[in-house]
Amino acid sequence: xxxxxxxxxxxxxxxxxxxxxxxxxxxxxxxxxxxxxxxxxxxxxxxxxxxxxxxxxxxxxxxxxxxxxxxxxxxxxxxxxxxxxxxxxxxx
Length: 92
Fold this sequence. Notes:
Number of strands: 5
Oligomer: single chain
Pfam family, one: Acetyltransf_CG
Strand content: 35-45%
InterPro entries: Acyl_CoA_acyltransferase, Gcn5-rel_NAT, GNAT_YJDJ
Order of helices and strands: EEEEHEH
Structural class: alpha+beta
CATH topology: Aminopeptidase
Protein name: GNAT family acetyltransferase
Helix content: 25-40%
Number of helices: 2
Organism: Saccharothrix longispora
């Protein structure tokens, strides 16, 4: 069984997803006041749901902290289009 975990690496300004402890991808961001701008997302292994798990966790974390998201990254923007229940994080 594979273990997937997501965490905020604030020192590097990115959320990271790990598969069995190995880095599987990241979503880079810029934090400016109460706005988190996601600028770039990379996933090393496709087809395992890592990208979706990464972005979902990141958006839920940002929402929980009361911050607003600017989805500059096309992957994050696409995720929000497919999951309108999280769209309120953009403030639109």
